[in-house]
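Translate sequence into structure tokens.
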Amino acid sequence: MTPTGPEVAPLHGEKILVTGATGQVALPVALSLAPDNEVWAAARFTDTASRERLEAAGVRCAAVDLVRGDLDALPDGFTVALNFAVVKSGRWDVDLDGNVGALGLLMEHCREARAFLHCSSTGVYEPRGNHVFHEEDPLGDNHRAYASELPFMETYSITKIAAEAMARYGARRWDLPTTIARLNVPYGDNGGWPAFHLEMILRGLPIAIHPDGPVRFNPIHEDDIVASIPGLLDAATVPATVVNWGGEPASLEEWCAFLGDLVGVEAAFIPSHAALGPVPVDLERMHTLTLAASTPWREGFRRMVMARHPEVLGPRS
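Result follows.
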């Protein structure tokens, strides 16, 4: 039986900062919190449609440039801050400033908040095959080989690790209760890595897969991300709390085969040592701090396909 986690009241009446608010994960978070809170979305807002969608839902938008450290558009008085911003330019100077230096500036700006949630990644763990990672396990450049195929990911793991160091420092420097949540594979109607696999399957493209199979992860639906945020904020401490953030375990092979079955196209694979290796994680700490993910991955993936490609669902969907 999947643990349900502690009962935690939804956020209500808070003044909330959500950074990276046009992104895959943060956009549904901001939209879900807007009805009951004063939500401020911080991003560059180069995508006009995303800004209009947020504002239509009652979210207040502030254009910021994290790489330059320009936070002038942000008001004071946030009670809660959720940092989902990530810069993946592939340039070390840009990505260190945007992911690490900017985090310090954000924490200083929000130093009076009751809690700060920094979204990290399970991509910070040193690769160890199908080892189930605990929060105390060694960190390392998980994306080193993957970056040879996708150069913009070259800086990802290293700057994520550096950002965790900044979050730990910021919690102590400003006595700001902080949770560092290492997100596994987020997905949902708004996209995600499995959505990229769906597009490749529909186009008949082979999916690179690491030889250390099964390539296991803990995908988590955007609904479960939203539901678990209040508990992660309540768990914020000084020094910072570190916790894995994921859902029901599944392998990449399983979910690609399932997606192919849904749309009537068999998923094809090509072995590659440059593909991401498995990163299954232990979720015991998460389940003691907040609500466990309640969306079975097959149900969540079916909903994702229905939202993004309802016209291609196969007869067995």
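Note: The radius of gyration is 19 Å.
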